[in-house]
Design a protein that fits this description.
Blueprint (H helix, E strand, L loop, with lengths): L1 E2 L5 E2 L1 E8 L10 E7 L5 E4 L12 H8 L58 H5 L5 H4 L4 E12 L3 E4 L23 E3 L5 E4 L10 E9 L10 E11 L9 H30 L5 H21 L7 H15 L5 H12 L4 H35 L3 H14 L11 H20 L3 H26 L8 H18 L5 H20 L15 H6 L7
Parallel strand pairs: 6-11
Antiparallel strand pairs: 1-2, 3-4, 4-5, 7-9, 8-9, 10-11
Amino acid sequence: MCNMGSSGWKLGRVIALRYREDHWPAELEAPYQVALESDHTLIYVPEDDARYCREPTREELRIARRLDALAPLPPGPERAEPHPELLGTGAQLGCADGTARLGSPDYRDGRCHGCDCCPRSWSSAELYSEHYRCATRNGLTVTRRAFDLGTFRVGDSVHHPAGEDLPDGGFMQCPTLVRLPPGVRFSDDGALSGEVRFDPHRDATYRVEFVAVSTVAWDDAAMGIVRLAITFVVEGNEPPSRFDKGAFRRAQQRARAAANRVLGDLSSTWERWERQELGNRATCDRMCADLRRLRELLELHPRLDGGRWWAWLGGFHMNVHKLLENTLFECELYLGHALTFGDAEVRGLAEQNLKGCYQKRLLEAARFMWIDGVERMMRGEWAAAAETLRLAGANMDGWGWAVNYGDIWISESAARLVHGAELAARGGAENNDGARWVTEAARLLGRGVARADEARAFGPQGHPWAFEIDAALAAYRSLQDNGADASDWLEAFKLRTVYWCAQVLGGAAPFPPKPRPRLEDAAALARRLPEHND
């Protein structure tokens, strides 16, 4: 991977060592000459330093060599699929009523590897991103159908019926409509029809690589997810006599300049937040206002610069999400839309941000599973709460979206201590089980205390809930050692645990504030995305 500055990182292959050019001073040489894979451009790397070049990750190889995460892999050592870390084990996929729910936060329950548990609700990011890879993570079959329609000229009619072996519908879930020529329509059954019209955004001759996906048969092991690819070439894409090329070019330049101004404002606001000149609320308000400006501009110029600005729109929503606004859907919506353009550089830009988006999904899941576990504790479901909290802690090693002080482990330790004490109170064979639960509670409490102490956010007694649990654990062990009845201790500890759970759910200190409601309706935002090219 070579750092190409403003063009981002690009994949290349080393073709020469200790490279030099004739006009260079005798003592000067470059460690590598590289041929870029995208266009075979020859470059040289000035220093053997990770700032300039590095070995590509598996995801970067795939991003450079295929259109999307459902496309076939090219030959090569990275072809082996699925990878061990992505095998779909333990997934609990299911569509409750058989219908999709746009913008569903179902990924937050941690059951389906950071993906929505209903494949019919999967977004462009979940289907196409190399960092999400929801089909692979959940072990689903991918069936690929490809059709090459040959060559068309502007003015020709296109009619490609749905294949007989394709699913009965579902292809309008996340089709890459922006890749189609103006005048050509795509329908839910997988058919193309219409008349090819002039496209001012493309060259005189261009290639169409259209992709659509149907998940209606996701639970059919023989078919699974169907990736439909339709390719053809368009020739004669010349402007008609009535088309004003100068006016079009000037309109694009004005839109680009306006987008750059918004980008500058967004960057400036974020830099001021980093310098602590703006608080979180003021930063969010300013950035959200600027992001609305950029979105409205792109709604007027949806194909500006090949989708690059959609990637920026999604990327800057990530900054807002870091400040605990509920905007991960916007990040994924706009970055996923950028993926549908099919431009290699735009895809690379979007994928850089989607890597972080997927990690934020896991963080969100950890937090909402923590909340779910705490609610179970409030209902007295101690064993179920402990299991939910165990999964939350395993999701991101005890971290969550603003859950930074070992709170997940501390909560699980309380649930396990209560359940262990209840088992021990029954006596007999369950006494040993209870002891194991209490031992695990002590181990988890130690992990939580260590995390809280690392943060240095509390006084000498550390995290207040952890301090109470530690004292309660010591009291319980003393009662056990002396053979005393622990029923009063157990009831008192349950009451204090319910108190602390109420503090968690209410967003009281030292816990993070309650999750904020969405700023805008997810379905309404998705409806505003452009569809077929005009």
